[in-house]
Design brief:
This protein is of the alpha/beta class and 203 residues long. It has 4 helices and 9 strands; from the N terminus they run E-E-H-E-H-E-H-E-E-H-E-E-E. The chain has a single domain, classed as Vaccinia Virus protein VP39 (Rossmann fold, 3-Layer(aba) Sandwich). Strands 5-4-3-6-7-9-8 form a 7-stranded mixed β-sheet, sandwiched between helices. It has a two-stranded antiparallel ribbon with strand order 1-2. Helix 3 links the parallel strand 4 and strand 5. The chain is globular and about 45 Å long.
């Protein structure tokens, strides 16, 4: 699937190699999902990632002089925003090696340094002072794994920021909303940025 270097709608300071606006997620997979050949999620800039990027760019003090981990990075938009905002080190994780390659390419296009790694954060002890997670609560299984891992990182002292457009598996009770944006993806989608609460009651 061909891509073009395009500005991010909600964060035009950043440009990414993205699929043409007329191309759908499953067009390159024969119109169907396959676990062997996952759809190219990284060729699209999703609402949660855009919202996180905008929030970080508008509030650089959140990441400046801190280490940042962007999980399920996709196109890398949040990671690139953190690097632009002055993070000392940014690491982008994604389970898809093609996404990891895309993050590296996009970081280079924006002239920022982002370390990349093909891995599932739930399987790693890797952490950072700030963890960004956009669009990660899209199935029950993934949401449960991600919630568990983010809660552990929070207990260990990490600041957790997530971007989510109101998916049904988002554990809202664990978070406080800190911002809200109308993201054009391509239809307008209200998307929140949320921070994990300082005090979490056991469930």
């Amino acid at each position: 699937m061909d891509t073009a270097l395009l500005p991010v709608p909600l964060a035009p300071e950043i440009s990414l190699h993205l699929a043409d606006g007329k191309v759908g997620l499953f067009d390159g997979t024969g119109g169907a999902f396959s676990s062997d050949v996952p759809p190219p999620f990284w060729q699209f800039v999703w609402a949660g990632g855009q919202a996180l990027a905008r929030y970080v760019l508008d509030h650089p003090e959140l990441v400046r002089d801190r280490s940042v981990l962007d999980v399920a990075s996709g196109s890398g938009v949040a990671a690139i925003a953190a690097a632009r905002a002055g993070a000392t080190r940014v690491t982008a994780l994604d389970v898809d090696p093609l996404a990891v390659a895309a993050v590296a390419r996009n970081a280079a296009a924006n002239r920022v340094a982002v370390d990349t790694r093909a891995a599932d954060v739930a399987d790693l002890d890797l952490t950072a002072e700030v963890i960004l997670a956009g669009d990660v609560f899209y199935t029950r299984t993934v949401a449960d794994r991600m919630t568990s891992r983010l809660r552990r990182a929070h207990r260990e002292g990490a600041r957790i920021l997530v971007g989510d457009p109101g998916r049904g598996y988002f554990p809202e009770r664990l978070f406080t909303q800190v911002a809200e944006y109308v993201v054009p993806v391509p239809a307008a989608l209200v998307t929140g940025v949320w921070e994990m609460r300082a005090t979490i009651r056991s469930s």
